[in-house]
Amino acid sequence: MNRIIVEKYGGSSVGSVDRMKAIAANVVTRHSLGYKMVIVVSAMGDTTDDLISLMNQIAVSPRHREMSMLLSTGEMVSSALLSMAIQALGKSATSLTGPQGGIHADSVHTEAKISSIDTRRILELLERDEIIVMAGYQGKVGDDITVLGRGGSDASAVALAAALGADQCNIYTDVNGVYSADPRVVPDASLLDCISYEEMIELAGSGARVMMGRAVEIARKYNLDVLVKSSFDESSGTLITREDALEKVVITGVAANTDVAKISIYGLHRNAHAILRCVAGLNVNIRLLTVNEMPNHETNLSIIVHPDEVMPIRQKLDELKRSEQIKSYAINTDVAKVSIVGSGIATHSGVAFDMFDCLAEAGIDVFMTSTSEIKISAIIPKHAANDAVRALHTTFKLNTIKRKLAEA
Ligand code: ASP
Ligand code: MG
Q1: Which numbered atom of ligand 1 lies nearest the CA of 153?
Q2: DSSP state of 398
Q3: Residues lining ligand 1, CB < 6 A?
Q4: Where along the chain do its domains lie?
Q5: Among 11, 74, 255, 394, which lies 20 to 30 A Cα-Cα from 65?
Q6: pLDDT per residue as tens digits for the range 76-110
Q7: Which protein residues have their CB within 5 A of the ion that is ligand 2?
Q8: Alpha-carbon distance 300 to 253, whole Å?
Protein backbone atom coordinates (compact mmCIF):
# COMPACT_ATOMS: atom_id res chain seq x y z
CA MET A 1 0.00 0.00 0.00
CA ASN A 2 1.29 3.45 -0.86
CA ARG A 3 -1.18 5.88 0.55
CA ILE A 4 -0.02 9.15 2.07
CA ILE A 5 -1.60 10.88 5.04
CA VAL A 6 -0.64 14.46 5.90
CA GLU A 7 -1.48 15.40 9.49
CA LYS A 8 -1.02 18.79 11.05
CA TYR A 9 -0.89 19.38 14.80
CA GLY A 10 -1.53 22.86 16.18
CA GLY A 11 0.19 24.52 19.14
CA SER A 12 -1.99 23.09 21.89
CA SER A 13 -1.85 19.61 20.35
CA VAL A 14 1.95 19.59 20.77
CA GLY A 15 1.86 21.81 23.86
CA SER A 16 3.64 19.40 26.23
CA VAL A 17 5.92 16.39 26.25
CA ASP A 18 2.97 14.18 27.16
CA ARG A 19 0.96 15.47 24.21
CA MET A 20 3.93 14.80 21.93
CA LYS A 21 4.15 11.23 23.19
CA ALA A 22 0.42 10.67 22.69
CA ILE A 23 0.61 11.99 19.14
CA ALA A 24 3.68 9.90 18.38
CA ALA A 25 1.76 6.79 19.44
CA ASN A 26 -1.17 7.63 17.13
CA VAL A 27 1.12 8.39 14.22
CA VAL A 28 2.95 5.10 14.69
CA THR A 29 -0.37 3.23 14.76
CA ARG A 30 -1.41 4.67 11.41
CA HIS A 31 2.02 4.03 9.98
CA SER A 32 1.75 0.40 11.05
CA LEU A 33 -1.49 0.14 9.06
CA GLY A 34 0.59 0.79 5.96
CA TYR A 35 0.21 4.54 5.47
CA LYS A 36 3.07 6.83 4.60
CA MET A 37 2.94 9.57 7.22
CA VAL A 38 3.86 13.23 6.79
CA ILE A 39 3.35 15.20 9.99
CA VAL A 40 3.37 19.01 10.07
CA VAL A 41 3.74 20.70 13.45
CA SER A 42 3.15 24.15 14.94
CA ALA A 43 5.22 25.65 17.72
CA MET A 44 4.48 24.28 21.21
CA GLY A 45 1.63 26.08 23.00
CA ASP A 46 2.05 29.85 22.98
CA THR A 47 5.68 29.75 21.85
CA THR A 48 5.16 32.06 18.88
CA ASP A 49 3.45 34.70 21.04
CA ASP A 50 6.26 34.37 23.58
CA LEU A 51 8.90 34.86 20.87
CA ILE A 52 7.06 37.95 19.64
CA SER A 53 6.97 39.40 23.13
CA LEU A 54 10.73 38.80 23.57
CA MET A 55 11.28 40.52 20.27
CA ASN A 56 9.14 43.50 21.27
CA GLN A 57 11.24 43.97 24.38
CA ILE A 58 14.35 44.30 22.24
CA ALA A 59 13.40 46.24 19.16
CA VAL A 60 10.55 48.45 17.98
CA SER A 61 10.66 47.43 14.36
CA PRO A 62 13.22 44.70 13.85
CA ARG A 63 14.21 43.69 10.34
CA HIS A 64 11.79 41.20 8.90
CA ARG A 65 14.59 38.84 8.06
CA GLU A 66 15.53 38.51 11.75
CA MET A 67 11.85 38.16 12.68
CA SER A 68 11.64 35.19 10.34
CA MET A 69 14.79 33.71 11.87
CA LEU A 70 13.27 34.04 15.33
CA LEU A 71 9.70 32.99 14.64
CA SER A 72 10.67 29.91 12.62
CA THR A 73 12.46 28.39 15.60
CA GLY A 74 9.30 27.37 17.48
CA GLU A 75 8.20 24.93 14.80
CA MET A 76 11.71 23.47 14.55
CA VAL A 77 11.68 22.64 18.25
CA SER A 78 8.36 20.80 17.82
CA SER A 79 9.49 18.86 14.77
CA ALA A 80 12.73 17.68 16.37
CA LEU A 81 11.00 16.66 19.60
CA LEU A 82 8.11 14.85 17.92
CA SER A 83 10.54 13.06 15.67
CA MET A 84 12.44 11.87 18.75
CA ALA A 85 9.19 10.75 20.37
CA ILE A 86 8.44 8.62 17.31
CA GLN A 87 11.95 7.20 17.27
CA ALA A 88 11.55 6.31 20.94
CA LEU A 89 8.69 4.04 19.85
CA GLY A 90 11.03 2.17 17.55
CA LYS A 91 10.13 3.76 14.20
CA SER A 92 12.32 5.76 11.87
CA ALA A 93 11.43 9.44 11.73
CA THR A 94 13.12 12.45 10.14
CA SER A 95 12.48 16.04 11.16
CA LEU A 96 12.74 18.67 8.45
CA THR A 97 12.61 22.45 8.41
CA GLY A 98 10.45 24.01 5.70
CA PRO A 99 13.49 24.75 3.50
CA GLN A 100 14.86 21.22 4.03
CA GLY A 101 11.48 19.83 3.05
CA GLY A 102 11.52 21.74 -0.24
CA ILE A 103 8.95 24.41 0.60
CA HIS A 104 9.67 27.56 -1.40
CA ALA A 105 7.98 30.84 -0.55
CA ASP A 106 7.67 34.26 -2.11
CA SER A 107 9.78 37.08 -0.79
CA VAL A 108 7.45 38.77 1.70
CA HIS A 109 9.20 38.01 4.97
CA THR A 110 6.89 37.07 7.89
CA GLU A 111 3.77 37.03 5.67
CA ALA A 112 5.13 34.89 2.86
CA LYS A 113 3.04 32.64 0.63
CA ILE A 114 4.14 29.21 -0.52
CA SER A 115 5.18 29.49 -4.16
CA SER A 116 6.21 25.90 -4.94
CA ILE A 117 7.17 22.65 -3.27
CA ASP A 118 10.00 20.41 -4.37
CA THR A 119 8.83 17.05 -3.02
CA ARG A 120 11.89 15.01 -4.01
CA ARG A 121 13.47 14.74 -0.58
CA ILE A 122 10.19 13.94 1.15
CA LEU A 123 9.31 11.28 -1.42
CA GLU A 124 12.75 9.69 -1.10
CA LEU A 125 12.42 9.55 2.68
CA LEU A 126 8.91 8.11 2.44
CA GLU A 127 10.23 5.50 0.04
CA ARG A 128 12.66 4.47 2.78
CA ASP A 129 9.71 4.13 5.14
CA GLU A 130 10.64 7.17 7.23
CA ILE A 131 7.93 9.12 9.05
CA ILE A 132 8.41 12.79 8.15
CA VAL A 133 7.96 15.48 10.78
CA MET A 134 7.97 18.87 9.09
CA ALA A 135 8.19 22.24 10.79
CA GLY A 136 5.12 24.18 9.64
CA TYR A 137 4.79 27.92 9.04
CA GLN A 138 8.05 28.29 7.08
CA GLY A 139 9.69 28.12 3.72
CA LYS A 140 12.79 29.03 1.79
CA VAL A 141 13.23 32.36 0.09
CA GLY A 142 16.56 32.77 -1.68
CA ASP A 143 19.10 31.40 0.79
CA ASP A 144 16.97 32.45 3.75
CA ILE A 145 14.13 31.12 5.83
CA THR A 146 10.83 32.98 6.00
CA VAL A 147 7.59 32.48 7.90
CA LEU A 148 4.13 32.30 6.38
CA GLY A 149 1.92 34.53 8.53
CA ARG A 150 0.14 33.61 11.77
CA GLY A 151 -1.53 30.23 11.64
CA GLY A 152 0.69 29.36 8.67
CA SER A 153 1.25 25.71 9.60
CA ASP A 154 -2.21 25.04 8.18
CA ALA A 155 -1.01 26.37 4.85
CA SER A 156 2.13 24.22 5.05
CA ALA A 157 0.06 21.09 5.63
CA VAL A 158 -2.55 21.72 2.95
CA ALA A 159 0.02 22.72 0.33
CA LEU A 160 2.11 19.64 1.13
CA ALA A 161 -0.93 17.37 0.92
CA ALA A 162 -1.77 18.83 -2.48
CA ALA A 163 1.81 18.55 -3.76
CA LEU A 164 2.13 14.94 -2.55
CA GLY A 165 -1.29 13.92 -3.85
CA ALA A 166 -2.09 12.76 -0.32
CA ASP A 167 -5.05 10.54 0.37
CA GLN A 168 -6.00 12.45 3.50
CA CYS A 169 -5.21 15.83 4.98
CA ASN A 170 -6.12 16.05 8.65
CA ILE A 171 -5.78 19.25 10.63
CA TYR A 172 -5.66 18.46 14.35
CA THR A 173 -6.52 21.28 16.69
CA ASP A 174 -8.01 21.80 20.16
CA VAL A 175 -11.63 22.20 19.06
CA ASN A 176 -13.89 19.46 17.74
CA GLY A 177 -14.29 21.06 14.34
CA VAL A 178 -16.25 23.89 12.79
CA TYR A 179 -19.37 25.06 14.61
CA SER A 180 -22.34 27.13 13.49
CA ALA A 181 -21.00 29.80 15.92
CA ASP A 182 -18.28 30.05 18.54
CA PRO A 183 -19.48 27.56 21.21
CA ARG A 184 -18.05 29.79 23.94
CA VAL A 185 -20.57 32.43 22.88
CA VAL A 186 -23.43 30.16 21.81
CA PRO A 187 -23.52 27.05 24.00
CA ASP A 188 -25.97 25.21 21.72
CA ALA A 189 -23.99 25.87 18.54
CA SER A 190 -24.01 22.89 16.16
CA LEU A 191 -20.88 20.99 15.22
CA LEU A 192 -20.97 20.81 11.42
CA ASP A 193 -20.18 17.47 9.77
CA CYS A 194 -19.19 19.27 6.58
CA ILE A 195 -18.74 22.76 5.23
CA SER A 196 -17.85 24.10 1.80
CA TYR A 197 -14.51 25.75 1.01
CA GLU A 198 -16.26 29.01 0.25
CA GLU A 199 -18.18 29.06 3.53
CA MET A 200 -15.07 28.17 5.51
CA ILE A 201 -13.04 30.93 3.86
CA GLU A 202 -15.75 33.45 4.73
CA LEU A 203 -16.06 32.19 8.30
CA ALA A 204 -12.26 32.30 8.77
CA GLY A 205 -12.27 35.91 7.52
CA SER A 206 -15.21 36.74 9.77
CA GLY A 207 -13.60 35.78 13.03
CA ALA A 208 -13.91 31.99 13.33
CA ARG A 209 -10.39 30.92 14.20
CA VAL A 210 -10.53 27.23 13.41
CA MET A 211 -8.24 27.30 10.39
CA MET A 212 -6.15 29.81 8.47
CA GLY A 213 -8.26 31.19 5.62
CA ARG A 214 -5.39 31.06 3.16
CA ALA A 215 -4.95 27.34 3.82
CA VAL A 216 -8.59 26.76 2.88
CA GLU A 217 -8.01 28.72 -0.32
CA ILE A 218 -5.16 26.35 -1.20
CA ALA A 219 -7.41 23.36 -0.49
CA ARG A 220 -10.11 24.80 -2.75
CA LYS A 221 -7.62 25.47 -5.52
CA TYR A 222 -6.49 21.83 -5.51
CA ASN A 223 -9.88 20.38 -4.67
CA LEU A 224 -8.44 18.71 -1.62
CA ASP A 225 -10.76 17.49 1.13
CA VAL A 226 -9.54 18.63 4.55
CA LEU A 227 -10.71 17.15 7.83
CA VAL A 228 -10.46 19.46 10.86
CA LYS A 229 -10.65 17.57 14.12
CA SER A 230 -9.57 17.59 17.75
CA SER A 231 -6.38 15.81 18.73
CA PHE A 232 -8.10 15.24 22.08
CA ASP A 233 -11.17 13.49 20.63
CA GLU A 234 -10.86 11.12 17.66
CA SER A 235 -14.62 10.99 17.08
CA SER A 236 -14.86 14.71 16.28
CA GLY A 237 -14.37 16.46 12.99
CA THR A 238 -15.64 18.66 10.15
CA LEU A 239 -14.90 17.88 6.52
CA ILE A 240 -14.12 20.91 4.34
CA THR A 241 -15.10 20.05 0.79
CA ARG A 242 -16.76 21.16 -2.45
CA GLU A 243 -20.13 22.88 -2.20
CA ASP A 244 -21.65 20.59 -4.84
CA ALA A 245 -20.79 17.55 -2.70
CA LEU A 246 -23.10 18.89 0.02
CA GLU A 247 -26.81 19.00 0.68
CA LYS A 248 -28.15 22.53 0.31
CA VAL A 249 -28.75 24.84 3.25
CA VAL A 250 -29.36 28.58 3.44
CA ILE A 251 -27.22 29.72 6.39
CA THR A 252 -24.38 27.65 7.80
CA GLY A 253 -22.84 29.85 10.45
CA VAL A 254 -22.47 33.19 12.15
CA ALA A 255 -19.27 34.80 13.39
CA ALA A 256 -18.14 38.08 14.87
CA ASN A 257 -14.80 39.73 14.33
CA THR A 258 -13.77 42.34 16.88
CA ASP A 259 -10.39 42.97 15.24
CA VAL A 260 -11.77 45.73 13.06
CA ALA A 261 -11.68 49.50 12.98
CA LYS A 262 -13.93 51.87 11.09
CA ILE A 263 -12.51 54.94 9.41
CA SER A 264 -14.90 57.54 8.02
CA ILE A 265 -13.51 60.15 5.67
CA TYR A 266 -15.62 63.26 5.13
CA GLY A 267 -15.77 65.84 2.41
CA LEU A 268 -13.69 64.29 -0.31
CA HIS A 269 -12.56 66.91 -2.78
CA ARG A 270 -11.09 64.37 -5.12
CA ASN A 271 -13.07 61.39 -6.21
CA ALA A 272 -13.28 58.45 -3.83
CA HIS A 273 -11.16 56.39 -6.15
CA ALA A 274 -8.19 58.75 -5.88
CA ILE A 275 -8.40 58.79 -2.08
CA LEU A 276 -8.68 55.02 -1.98
CA ARG A 277 -5.63 54.71 -4.15
CA CYS A 278 -3.67 56.77 -1.59
CA VAL A 279 -4.82 54.43 1.19
CA ALA A 280 -4.30 51.25 -0.82
CA GLY A 281 -0.75 52.40 -1.54
CA LEU A 282 -0.10 51.69 2.16
CA ASN A 283 -0.61 47.98 1.49
CA VAL A 284 -3.62 47.78 3.82
CA ASN A 285 -6.42 45.31 3.40
CA ILE A 286 -9.78 47.10 3.14
CA ARG A 287 -12.39 44.64 4.34
CA LEU A 288 -15.51 46.69 3.74
CA LEU A 289 -16.21 49.96 2.06
CA THR A 290 -19.10 52.33 1.47
CA VAL A 291 -19.20 55.54 -0.51
CA ASN A 292 -21.94 58.09 0.17
CA GLU A 293 -22.86 60.96 -2.12
CA MET A 294 -24.30 63.66 0.13
CA PRO A 295 -27.11 66.01 -1.02
CA ASN A 296 -24.55 68.86 -1.10
CA HIS A 297 -22.52 66.82 -3.65
CA GLU A 298 -19.84 66.08 -1.14
CA THR A 299 -18.65 62.52 -0.92
CA ASN A 300 -18.04 60.60 2.28
CA LEU A 301 -16.21 57.32 2.46
CA SER A 302 -16.13 54.66 5.20
CA ILE A 303 -13.72 51.77 5.31
CA ILE A 304 -13.16 48.85 7.65
CA VAL A 305 -9.60 47.75 8.31
CA HIS A 306 -7.60 45.79 10.89
CA PRO A 307 -6.80 47.94 13.98
CA ASP A 308 -3.05 47.48 13.28
CA GLU A 309 -3.55 49.32 10.02
CA VAL A 310 -5.07 52.43 11.57
CA MET A 311 -1.74 54.15 12.34
CA PRO A 312 -0.35 54.36 8.80
CA ILE A 313 -3.77 55.33 7.45
CA ARG A 314 -4.10 58.09 10.02
CA GLN A 315 -0.77 59.54 8.89
CA LYS A 316 -1.90 59.46 5.27
CA LEU A 317 -5.23 61.09 6.12
CA ASP A 318 -3.46 63.87 8.03
CA GLU A 319 -1.49 64.57 4.87
CA LEU A 320 -4.63 64.57 2.75
CA LYS A 321 -6.28 66.93 5.21
CA ARG A 322 -3.36 69.31 5.18
CA SER A 323 -3.44 69.44 1.39
CA GLU A 324 -7.24 69.94 1.62
CA GLN A 325 -8.10 66.86 -0.36
CA ILE A 326 -10.44 65.78 2.44
CA LYS A 327 -12.27 67.81 5.07
CA SER A 328 -11.97 65.56 8.09
CA TYR A 329 -11.97 61.99 9.26
CA ALA A 330 -13.02 59.92 12.26
CA ILE A 331 -11.66 56.65 13.59
CA ASN A 332 -13.78 54.26 15.61
CA THR A 333 -12.16 51.13 17.03
CA ASP A 334 -15.19 50.32 19.17
CA VAL A 335 -16.85 48.34 16.42
CA ALA A 336 -17.23 44.70 15.42
CA LYS A 337 -18.18 42.95 12.23
CA VAL A 338 -20.88 40.31 12.54
CA SER A 339 -21.46 38.07 9.54
CA ILE A 340 -23.81 35.33 8.52
CA VAL A 341 -22.39 32.87 6.03
CA GLY A 342 -24.14 30.34 3.85
CA SER A 343 -24.18 29.18 0.27
CA GLY A 344 -27.96 29.62 0.13
CA ILE A 345 -27.76 33.40 0.53
CA ALA A 346 -27.41 33.90 -3.23
CA THR A 347 -30.59 31.96 -3.99
CA HIS A 348 -32.86 32.93 -1.11
CA SER A 349 -34.42 36.36 -0.98
CA GLY A 350 -35.19 37.94 2.35
CA VAL A 351 -32.14 36.70 4.21
CA ALA A 352 -30.67 40.19 4.51
CA PHE A 353 -34.03 41.49 5.67
CA ASP A 354 -34.26 38.77 8.35
CA MET A 355 -30.76 39.60 9.51
CA PHE A 356 -31.32 43.35 9.87
CA ASP A 357 -34.73 42.78 11.37
CA CYS A 358 -33.16 40.51 13.97
CA LEU A 359 -30.45 43.06 14.84
CA ALA A 360 -33.01 45.87 15.07
CA GLU A 361 -35.20 43.80 17.34
CA ALA A 362 -32.20 43.11 19.58
CA GLY A 363 -31.65 46.89 19.75
CA ILE A 364 -28.29 46.70 17.96
CA ASP A 365 -27.23 49.66 15.79
CA VAL A 366 -25.90 48.88 12.32
CA PHE A 367 -23.34 51.36 10.96
CA MET A 368 -22.39 49.70 7.68
CA THR A 369 -23.32 46.60 5.74
CA SER A 370 -22.07 44.51 2.89
CA THR A 371 -23.46 41.54 1.07
CA SER A 372 -21.98 38.93 -1.21
CA GLU A 373 -23.23 35.69 -2.73
CA ILE A 374 -22.52 33.79 0.46
CA LYS A 375 -22.07 36.34 3.23
CA ILE A 376 -23.86 39.29 4.76
CA SER A 377 -21.93 41.46 7.21
CA ALA A 378 -22.91 44.31 9.48
CA ILE A 379 -20.68 46.70 11.37
CA ILE A 380 -22.09 47.12 14.87
CA PRO A 381 -20.91 48.42 18.28
CA LYS A 382 -18.20 46.18 19.67
CA HIS A 383 -19.97 45.58 22.99
CA ALA A 384 -22.94 44.09 21.11
CA ALA A 385 -20.90 41.50 19.20
CA ASN A 386 -21.79 38.45 21.28
CA ASP A 387 -25.43 39.46 21.63
CA ALA A 388 -25.64 39.82 17.86
CA VAL A 389 -24.14 36.38 17.31
CA ARG A 390 -26.60 34.80 19.74
CA ALA A 391 -29.60 36.62 18.28
CA LEU A 392 -28.71 35.68 14.71
CA HIS A 393 -27.98 32.09 15.69
CA THR A 394 -31.50 31.88 17.13
CA THR A 395 -33.20 33.69 14.23
CA PHE A 396 -31.69 31.35 11.64
CA LYS A 397 -32.26 28.28 13.87
CA LEU A 398 -28.64 27.26 13.60
CA ASN A 399 -28.87 25.08 16.70
CA THR A 400 -30.53 22.48 14.47
CA ILE A 401 -28.45 23.00 11.34
CA LYS A 402 -27.10 19.86 9.65
CA ARG A 403 -24.50 20.16 6.95
CA LYS A 404 -24.20 16.77 5.26
CA LEU A 405 -22.75 15.16 2.16
CA ALA A 406 -25.35 14.93 -0.59
CA GLU A 407 -26.42 11.39 -1.43
CA ALA A 408 -24.48 10.32 -4.50
N1 ASP B 1 3.12 29.03 15.39
C2 ASP B 1 2.57 29.91 14.37
C3 ASP B 1 1.48 30.76 14.97
O4 ASP B 1 1.19 30.63 16.14
C5 ASP B 1 2.08 29.17 13.18
C6 ASP B 1 0.95 28.20 13.46
O7 ASP B 1 0.61 27.92 14.59
O8 ASP B 1 0.38 27.69 12.49
O9 ASP B 1 0.92 31.57 14.30
MG1 MG C 1 0.82 28.52 17.05
Answers
A1: 8
A2: G
A3: 10-11, 42-43, 48, 74, 136-137, 150-154
A4: 4-174, 254-400
A5: 11
A6: 999 999 999 999 999 999 999 999 999 999 987 88
A7: 11, 42, 48
A8: 32
